[in-house]
Amino acid sequence: MTAAPALDVLTMGRVGVDVYPDQVGVGLDEVTSFGKYLGGSATNVAVAAARLGRSAAVVTRTGADPFGRFVRRELRGFGVDDRFVAEVPGRPTPVAFCEIFPPDRFPLYFYGRDPKAADLEIRAEELDLDAIAAAGVFWATATGLCAEPSRTATLAALRARGRRGITVLDLDYRPMFWDSPEEAGRRVREALPHATAAVGNLDEWETAVGARDPHRAARAARGLGVQLSVVKRGPDGVVALDGTAAAEAPPIPVKTVNGLGAGDAFGGALCHGLLSGWPLGRAVRFANAAGAIVASRLACSAAMPTGAEVEELLGAEEGR
Fold first, then answer.
1. pTM
2. DSSP secondary-structure letter at 112?
3. How far apart are CA 79 and CA 119, in angstroms?
4. What is the domain count for the chain?
5. Range with the poorest average pLDDT among 77-81, 254-258, 307-311
6. Does 123 reside within a domain?
7. For residue 273, is it within any domain?
8. Is residue 33 part of a domain?
9. HSE, side-chain direction, 13 A CA sphere, residue 225
């Protein structure tokens, strides 16, 4: 049997269904209609990469329910390979409701994650370690470390990479999934030595390595073996440090509609730039623009931009 071609991007972690209100600026108690979208950080990163022409797949789990069927149909519709998605009987597919208060308040309410979500039931013995090792980029999330058996599976996948290619740990800290920030930091520091790159916002970096300053955080990450540290600073833009130089991307002004998917768009676009062999500065600027586009739209997965859309925004910024 001929082995399947290696994937450009293989992600592992959270999946779900995002239920976003059609009415902006009001609480869920006053919302009268909603839209239903594919969601979950690792899933959105795979969708973002696929929108940019990359072969992409996600390792995750759903419930054996209608929302699980919706997830797989949406993945295929976005061009994301769903062969590593399996059902977990007795666990529901998670659902996340969001309130939208632009420009910077987007409360999330998770359902189906208590006591444990289906996507935390990934088991090490179920992994296709050959596919994980062969992918151009393997992207794992810190949320996958918050509970067993997903924690052991995530570490097994990272070890299978052997630090080859581009191996990214998305710091992805969601306090509601952890007993404490200290536990989250300890688990992340166990995983970081297996990654070549780490991506997170200021709060996530502080939780992971005890430093908010990008240069201090990068030094701490390098001490654990991480080569590339990407620090997302919200309205102050992005800083990426690879041990030899720092690349910065200033914020791109857009009218924010929903900021929740911007980081995942950034992640998928960063994968694309790194796989393309671009200089770090270009890769970070491209990813930053992709995130800005999604922040200006309502959905997450359905809002992921094409390469032409990102280049158009970058051209407009350069022409200002």
1. 0.96
2. S
3. 20
4. 1
5. 254-258
6. yes
7. yes
8. no
9. 15
Burial of 211: CB neighbours in 10 Å, binned 0-12, 13-18, 19+: middle
Residues in CB range of 186: below 8 A, 6 or more apart? none
Band the pLDDT of 234: cuts 50, 70, 90.
confident
What 8-state DSSP symbol labels residue 64?
S
The 3-state secondary structure of 21-49 reads: ECCCCCCCCCCCCEEEEEECHHHHHHHHH
Instruction: Report whether pLDDT(175) > 60.
Output: yes
Enclosing domain of residue 310: 9-14+41-90+116-315
List, for residues 69-94, the tens digit of each pLDDT value: 999 999 999 999 999 999 999 999 99
Could you give the CA distance from residue 199 to residue 263 in angstroms, rounded to a whole number? 9
CATH of the domain at 269: 3.40.1190.20
The answer to whether the CB of 98 falls within 8 A of the CB of 258 is yes
- Confirm whether 28 is domain-assigned: no
